[in-house]
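Quick one, probably user error.
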């Protein structure tokens, strides 16, 4: 029997009064796949990611994550889905290690020093574990936000403009993490204005325009269609 898709959306929409932030959207993403989510500002990318993450509730439609009802089974899915938002949402007066310790505690896990240090090593911040986040550069804060998500080891990884503030080494680090997650059977949905970078990592692509899907399918098909994209 085939395994359930990592994500399946069926006619998902989000309305704010008469305004549709996201129109009926149907997407399937399997384990081991990476989907580039493209579209201009205001096209609905962040709304879509927040719906999948459970941060906001859709107005219409249904969906499943690893075969479980995306809405009814949300509490059980919290550990399966990780959202790296466009903002870092870090505690500036805590150290890097304390930020990670806090997120693990809130997730109901017992923080272990070695685990925290390993997560910081993955993003090249082990030497800054005891420093307060308010002293970090923008790139260092982004790396810590990445470490926080990786620490929870979600199977479905949602990335909203993950390259924000990263230098060349940070960009390569992010790409390596995305490839590694997919190679290990996880699924990734990556919203980015860097279309070429996203397409180089992905095997599937979804393009949103004014809240509606303009294209969803293989990257190769997208390139062949010469679909228009404005970042």
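Nope, works fine. Designed sequence:
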């Amino acid at each position: 029997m085939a395994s359930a898709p990592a994500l399946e959306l069926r006619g998902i929409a989000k309305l704010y009064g008469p305004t549709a932030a996201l129109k009926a959207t149907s997407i399937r993403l399997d384990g081991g796949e990476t989907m580039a989510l493209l579209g201009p500002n205001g096209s609905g990318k962040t709304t879509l990611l927040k719906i999948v993450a459970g941060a906001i509730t859709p107005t219409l439609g249904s969906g499943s994550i690893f075969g479980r009802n995306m809405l009814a089974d949300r509490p059980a899915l919290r550990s399966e889905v990780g959202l790296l938002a466009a903002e870092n949402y870090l505690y500036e007066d805590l150290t890097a290690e304390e930020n990670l310790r806090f997120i693990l505690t809130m997730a109901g896990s017992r923080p272990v020093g070695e685990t925290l240090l390993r997560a910081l090593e993955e993003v090249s911040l082990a030497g800054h574990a005891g420093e307060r986040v308010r002293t970090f550069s923008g790139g260092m804060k982004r790396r810590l936000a990445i470490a926080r998500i990786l620490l929870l080891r979600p199977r479905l990884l949602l990335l909203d403009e993950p390259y924000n503030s990263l230098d060349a080494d940070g960009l390569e680090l992010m790409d390596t993490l995305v490839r590694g997650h997919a190679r290990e059977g996880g699924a990734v949905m990556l919203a980015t204005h860097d279309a070429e970078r996203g397409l180089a990592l992905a095997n599937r692509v979804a393009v949103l325009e004014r809240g509606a899907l303009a294209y969803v399918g293989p990257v190769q098909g997208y390139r062949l269609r010469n679909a228009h994209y404005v970042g």
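The beta strands are 7-16, 19-29, 34-38, 60-65, 68-69, 81-84, 156-160, 187-191, 204-209, 212-218.
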